[in-house]
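Help! Submission page says 'invalid entity' but I think these are all valid:
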Amino acid sequence: METAIAGYTYGSDAVARSPLSAEEFDLLKKTVLFGAEDERYLRLAGEVLADQIEAVLDVWYGFVGSHPHLAIYFSSPEGVLDTEYLTRVRARFHQWILDTCNRPYDTDWLNYQQEIGLRHTRAKKNLTDHVRSVPYIGMRYMIAFIYPITATVKPFLANKGHSAEEVEKMHQAWFKSIVLQVTLWCLPYVEPANF
Amino acid sequence: METAIAGYTYGSDAVARSPLSAEEFDLLKKTVLFGAEDERYLRLAGEVLADQIEAVLDVWYGFVGSHPHLAIYFSSPEGVLDTEYLTRVRARFHQWILDTCNRPYDTDWLNYQQEIGLRHTRAKKNLTDHVRSVPYIGMRYMIAFIYPITATVKPFLANKGHSAEEVEKMHQAWFKSIVLQVTLWCLPYVEPANF
Ligand code: HEM
Ligand code: HEM
């Protein structure tokens, strides 16, 4: 199944290597208070979201599509939206939601976060899909997206009849994971000495 | 009152200037969905938090103090905690909670965010309090702190008898503001062309 997603190279030799040590990664998890309970609630979130992922993506793509300053990143340098690019990335985005919920956050996972980060920067944006688009996504929007990507998922977590407390725990685990991932994705934006 | 806080230079000529244009700032606010309703709920949060700020700071300082990888930033290069440094920064942190809730996010505010960002980087850390400490805070922890600084404030917002809906709206406004501010604070960490 996974190999059917164009450009999705998780676990393969084509993936970048994270420069972070296991200890540095561990300190980051501690800083966002990410622990075993969060892993359990992410698995539950994975079950809850499984048949709603396209609906979640509709919300996110709607958000990007309705804001010209975000849509440009999926457009040609002349500003024409590249729907094939959007569609190809969407398939990897779908898989990413599953990975966020279901994968162990091990070395393969950490390396793929480095890869995803790079794919938003000048180093690798556009290469995977062989597209002509703006060369990178400003780091400002990577961080700012923590808000919409966290907030918009909550109603979906509440759609399968779980208690308010369970929904809240799934949502907190999701929030921690997003902050953790965006932190990792910002690594290739800065001088190693400032990260 | 304000001039009594050592090193708090808000609105003065000593503050750095933000390189962001008003339009760029506006796009960031749009990206975190920050609007007039959030301003209203931040004002309410300001009222709710007013007599609880030291308790909030106790939680945050407890978190930093119990994690050696965070406490080093308030310590000498040899690792001895500098309690005077902690105390001086705490007074500005107190004021920052008030500012986050009560100030208009105008040019003075935007400039002070640039100043706060710089005070976490090699450019300005330690200068304000004339201390000898580690030279900068890694950008990774600036972003990662979005989680604890957002999550830990919620119980305090619920302490004054507001409805669950009002508490949630105050908390969302706080969350948006934290993401917005951390985004601004990360500006001096990167090449302008990558921000
Ligand atoms: C929390 C923030 C974000 C999340 C969770 C996120 C998620 C993702 C994921 C999962 C992928 C595919 C990774 C892969 O190739 O396997 C991706 C790629 C991409 N994202 Fe993001 N993203 C974020 C921020 C942004 C922002 C702010 C934009 C700007 C509109 C953006 C635009 C893109 C583009 C254009 C690609 C394709 C990059 C390429 O050419 O390979 N992303 N993103
Ligand atoms: C959401 C993240 C953070 C928030 C809201 C925050 C807030 C603040 C505030 C309001 C100040 C005082 C600003 C002024 O001078 O008026 C400050 C300074 C400081 N913060 Fe942070 N901070 C964050 C991240 C961090 C992290 C991760 C550390 C590491 C433990 C840290 C350590 C410090 C230190 C050492 C200072 C004093 C800097 C100086 O020498 O002037 N902060 N912070």
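Support: the input was valid. A stray whitespace character was the problem, and the output above is from the cleaned input. The mean pLDDT of chain B is 97.
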